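so i finally got all the pieces together for this one. its two components total, 229 residues if u count the protein bits. some of the lines might not be protein, just check the labels. i wanna see the whole assembly predicted at once instead of chain by chain like last time, that was a mess tbh
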Amino acid sequence: NAGVMQNPRHLVRRRGQEARLRCSPMKGHSHVYWYRQLPEEGLKFMVYLQKENIIDESGMPKERFSAEFPKEGPSILRIQQVVRGDSAAYFCASSLSGTSGTNEQFFGPGTRLTVL
Amino acid sequence: AQSVTQLDSQVPVFEEAPVELRCNYSSSVSVYLFWYVQYPNQGLQLLLKYLSGSTLVKGINGFEAEFNKSQTSFHLRKPSVHISDTAEYFCAVSEGGYQKVTFGTGTKLQVIP
């Protein structure tokens, strides 16, 4: 049973380019979360999605960032016109349902974005 | 709003010695508490979680944590560490039944041979 998969594992972009990060949740999981980890910091919540719905995007920057979780296919975190400050590790997690106490979030290995 | 404080950014400890990693939280409602471990260049793995019931929670790899409501703490302990425990440890909290999890800034455990 494959875990949460993220690709690419490493992504290098130049300033102004677009970055697309993909996350395939564990089989049977319909809840996806994106977190950002800046160097020497903890994980910061960005967005919580269910299939075709954004439930909570309170941690997403207001501009340039967007996320989706379509009916078919992986969840996508999209960063437009990247800047150096976007360099970070982006982690995706999935869970079976939306009740935090009874359902563990399983984390993927992360995508490390470097903006030159 | 919920928050988590991990006061120790780095904790060096000799192999086979005991260790305690401190975590304090703040929340206006009942909480669920978690400890995760992150090995270099990997994702997070759940060590243990407190939902309700017994305040002493046992997790994987010999770790345990104690929930102290009066002190709003959830310290992680292991009686005898191994080299393989070298990693970064994150305390996390979520309020009520909602899935939004807030993480602390992490504590790097360095086990010295």
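The CA atoms of residues 41 and 87 of chain B lie 10 Å apart.
The radius of gyration of chain B is 13 Å.
anyway lmk what u think
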